[in-house]
Amino acid sequence: MQQEKIGPTWLNSNFPKVIFITVAAATLLPVVTPPVALLLGIALAQTIGNPFAAITPRITHWLLQLSVVGLGFGMNVYSALKAGSEGFVFTIASITGTLLFGALLGKLLKIDRKTSHLISCGTAICGGSAIAAISPVIKAGEKQISVALGIIFLLNAAALFIFPVVGHMLNLSQQQFGLWSAIAIHDTSSVVGAANKYGEEALQIATTVKLSRALWIIPVAFITTLLFKNGAGKIKIPWFIAIFIAAMLLNTWVPVVQQVSPFLVKSAKTGLSLTLFLIGVNLTRQALQGIGWKPLLQGVLLWVMISTGALAAILCLG
Prior knowledge:
By secondary structure, the protein is mainly α. It is about 80% helix and about 0% strand.
């Protein structure tokens, strides 16, 4: 009698967790690429949901940062400085243009001001990290944050598949694709995933340029404080960028580190696959249904603007 009662109860409560853990472990295998890991996450989100919804956002946050730091051990300081300087002008122009166009769209579509600003900042700088940094500055509510994050993660998922295809269709060089993906894809995870799929040189350029863009969170946050007149807001500085730079320095000048760098980079890429899986499982039907068509339209229009504009500029400059 007791066994009959426990059996079905165990299945109902733990079966989704077992499936989740099994698929998550599978993403660590070399045969599972980051795009496939993202698709697996989305598939679970639409079927069994996310049984660990309370902890996966925090795990995703830390795992992404550790993966990015690990990629730093595969980069050279001199190459990174060159890539960063080449993307500097694009960075200023794209961030300014996206924020201004986003504010205009927000007014035209009559979107809540805080939600509109979070979507604009997420598109302009570095996706979820920018939203996490700006939201306490403007004292955004949970609903406003979740809508902005939902849009950014949805478009990130699309970019991971669309950008490499377009890059190959246009025969973009490794340098061109790395720069384009760093500017036009919102979140660091999808930037790294798309660039890694395109090539090693594209990965190095994209990661460096994207992280240099992330530093713009600080001035944008200060400007936001003035616009929203919330002087007490707290700015979250992306500390992991400093560790990423330290990893590059060690890999450039310390021979002992150079010997273990291939292992660290490989581990970082594996961590990225798991990160994208965790991002995918958060795109549940409930999360997507709560977005609303006006904020989604703003996000899509901003993304199309920055993607086409950056691509046209890169192609014109050769």
